[in-house]
Structures are given as structure tokens and as C-alpha cells.
Amino acid sequence: MVRRVQARDELAFREIVERYQAKVFSIIYGILRNHNDAEDIAQQVFSKIYFSIRNFDFRSSLLTWIYKITVNECYDYLRKKRVRKLVYESDFSEEDATRMEASDPAIDPATPMDRKLAQQDLVAKLLEKVSAEDRSLILLKEVEGHSVEELAAMTGLNENTIKVKLFRTRQKLLKAAQRLGRGRSISK
Amino acid sequence: MHRVIRDHLEEVLAQAPLAGPAKQHLEDCKECRDEVMRMRNHAIALRSLRSAEEIEPRPGFYARVMERIEAEGPASIWTVFSESPFGRRIAVASMALALAIGVYMFTAEQPEPGVLSQPVEFVSGTIPGEDQPGVVLTNSGAPDRDAVLVNLVTYQGQ
């Protein structure tokens, strides 16, 4: 199917859109939590797929490739939005960082909905601090629930490389959370 | 974090049962235990990005995608400079370099002060001791004016 799209077969491209549209929407909505933005970004994702599928080299699975494009588009959107807003990080408070470090949302049954949304927002912001590749990998692991073996098969990397990359990304996220929290307290 | 835990980190975070040295180390090492706990909290927070339900787009999504593709057309080489931050930096750096070269070239072509600052005048006349009228090249200024007067007097006297 990919080869047909690479040859500009529009029927094959339509198949790709219909097969992956729900997945793409879910990924975008998971990160941005906004239906209107999700439509716009999903269109952009498929437009990008259409124009760059000739560069797809089959080293990773098509889903992994589409996943990366989708996550990158979300973070491009967040970056542009932040540039417009200028003070995007100002709502990441020291309390947010502390909560991220110390709390365990899974075992706190009294967590209200708005706190959950705040947590999602905060995680999305932390993920901005790591590279696009690391971000996709950690999201494929934690959000999509793929195992290390599956990630190795999907990306064409070996399992040890995946483990090392995941470990480094987790460390970067911890450091980013600490840094954001500390930076905030210094500026106070 | 110590290697023995790092090697089994994904199992630890998935709360899979550990055995042997890794389990023992995690019980003994507070530093590793704390870092694992913080990483586990991050992992749980990351899972909150999972969309609860599958989201389908509004009907006609494919048509809207095709409209967008037709409107956008293939990306030109210039979008590399306009869209990516790195490209924008390169563009700005190139412009600054071009400006610096332009300024340097402009200033380098200016004549040095003092050299040819006064216009050269061609004075027609006869040089004393010569029959044919000649041309004397002088810079304008008081000494040159004297030379012209001398030439004129000499000419009238002949």
C-alpha cells in the first residue's frame, strides 16, 4: 500500500487516511485535549504524510512513522502557540513540579477531573523538553502500551538500544521537572 | 541509578516481580528506590495522555485533507527556512553576514583622508623658458594660485 501511495495512487492514500484517522485523532486529542485543534492538526498530519511518504524507507513500521509525524505536529503546534502566548510556561508552577515528583495519581481516588487535566497538561509540557525521537518512543511505550520487544520491531532498533533510550528519556524528564520547578522558585 | 536496576528498569516500572540481585538492591538502595518511584510517577502521568475512547473525525475528513493538500502543494525549499527554527537561524545569520560584507566593502572603497582631498585643476599657460603653451597640473590652494599668477605674468611679458 505504501508503495502505491509513493506512486501517487490516491485510492491507496485514501485507504491510509481511513485506516489511521481514528488513531491520529486519538493521539492528538490525548496530547492537546481539544477537538477543533485535533481536526486541524490531523489534516496537517495527513498532508505531511502525502508529501513526504516518498521518504519513508520501511526501516520502521508505517504506524510508528505516522505516530512520529503526529506527535511532532502536536508539539510544533504547542511551540507556535507558546510563541504567540510568550509566557506559555508561566502556568507551570512550583507546586505542579512538586506534585509531579511526589504524588501518585493512580492511587489517589479522590483526584478531581480538573486535577487530572492539569496533570495531562503538565506532562505534555514536560515532553517538550526532550527530543522528538525520545518523545515518540516514550509515548509509544507508556501511552500506546507497547513492550520493549514490540518497540524494537517497530523501530528497527535492538532491544538494548530501546532500553537505553527509554532510560535516558526518563532521566531527562525527571531533570526537566526538577529544573522547571527550581527555575520557578528562583524567579519568585 | 545503579546498573543492576537500570538493566531491569522497564520490568521494575511495569511492577513485574523482580528476583535475585535486582530485588535485593532495590530493597537496600534508597537512592535507586527514590529514583524508581519518581520515574514510576512520571510513567503513570504519561499514561494519562492516553485517549479514553477512539475518536473519529467528522464525516468528510478525507475530502478536507485532499482540499488542504491541493491548497498547500508540495513544500518548496524556502519552507525549510521559514518553518524550522534552525532554518530561520541560518537565514538570519546569512543576512547578518551579507550585511557585514556589504558594510565592509562600502567602507573599504572610501578614499583615505588627505589623499586627493583637493580637486586637481588643469591650468593652461606657458611654462617660463618654453615657447609652447603647456599645461600645469596643480592642486587648488594658495601656493598653486601663485604659480598661476607667475605663469600669467610671464605670458603677458612675452
Textual characterization of the structure:
The longest helix of chain A is centred in the C-terminal third of the chain and has 29 residues, at 159-187. Chain A is an all-alpha fold and 188 residues long. Chain A is globular. Chain A is built from 9 helices and no strands. Chain A starts with a helix and ends with a helix. By secondary structure, chain B is mainly alpha-helical. In chain B, strands 1-2 form a two-stranded antiparallel sheet. The mean pLDDT of chain B is 76. Classes of the chains: A mainly alpha (188), B mainly alpha (158).
Number of helices of chain A: 9
Q: Which regions of chain B are unreliable across 5 or more consecutive residues at pLDDT < 50?
A: none
Oligomer: heterodimer
Q: From N to C, what is the helix and strand string of chain A?
A: HHHHHHHHH
Strand content of chain A: under 5%
Helix fraction of chain B by DSSP (H/I, runs of at least 4): 55-70%
Mean pLDDT of chain B: 76
Number of strands of chain A: 0
Note the beta-strand portion of chain B. 5-15%
Order of helices and strands of chain B: HHHHHHHEEH
Main β-sheet, spatial strand arrangement of chain B: 1-2
The span between the termini of chain B is: 110 Å
| Largest interface chains and counts | A-B, 51 and 36 residues
**Integer-rounded radius of gyration of chain A:** 18 Å
| Relative helix content of chain A | over 70%
Low-confidence stretches of chain A: 183-188
- What integer value in Å does the Rg of chain B equal? 44 Å
- Structural class, judged by helices and strands of chain A? mainly alpha
- In round numbers, the mean pLDDT of chain A is 81
First-to-last CA distance of chain A: 56 Å
Note the main attributes of this structure:
heterodimer; A: mainly alpha; disordered C terminus; B: 158 residues; mainly alpha; 8 helices; 9% strand
Can you give me a brief rundown of this structure?
With 188 residues, chain A is an all-alpha fold. Chain A has helices spanning 2-6, 10-32, 35-52, 62-85, 94-102, 113-127, 132-142, 148-155, 159-187. The longest helix of chain A is centred in the C-terminal third of the chain and has 29 residues, at 159-187.
